[in-house]
Write the structure tokens for this entry.
Amino acid sequence: MDSVRPPKRRRGRPPANTSVISREAVLAAGLQVLERDGLDALTMRKVADELGVQAASLYWHVRDKDELLDLLADELLAGADLRSLVDPTDWRAGAAAILREMRRHLLARRDSARLLAGRFSAGPNRLRSMEAVLGVLRSAGLGPHDTAYACYFLMVTVIGFVANEQAPLSAQVRNGMPPREFLDGLRDRLAGLPAEEYPHTVALAAEVTGPDLARRFDFAVDRMLDGIEALRGERD
């Protein structure tokens, strides 16, 4: 039995009786669905409904849902031109500013980290972001290998951190419990564990469940940049 193949992107112009839409309109509608309904609910049919057309009309502009997701991943980064944050006189300050701006930008867009995770699109917005990170690392004096590897490490760390921030802490939080209430309850549970079995968890229950994600991110940024400083020292 033949396997089911995804539809191919159609060529030429759509039929005269087909509503005229553009690729830009498809992407804008996709972002609207993503923001309103979330990544799990994003379908070609919902995007088409947003535009008031049949789903088949979308295939004049995108091959399938996977290509749409690739394009949306790039669109999510529009407006995050990190190159202006590069400081030619202080690579570390520039790198920290870039990483913090990446986090801020992604946190403002629903399910952005989940959509970006594992995708390496070569769209203009993704390329501009990568160019900024590569540039600041090269200004730190890293060689080609270390620059490429450090760039990957920094970008996936930010995406992974944001993915954790955007995910619900538990089923209770997903069902409406305020995150702080959940964390307070978790703190009390951890503090009440048998100290002879979990001495470190009991002692650090308040720190483990603290509400200081921005400071945790700054801690991660500082430690990553410390590692790059060490690489620079090895090269010296």
Summary: DSSP finds twelve helices and no strands in the chain. Residues 1-6 have pLDDT under 50 and may be disordered. The two ends are 62 Å apart (CA to CA).
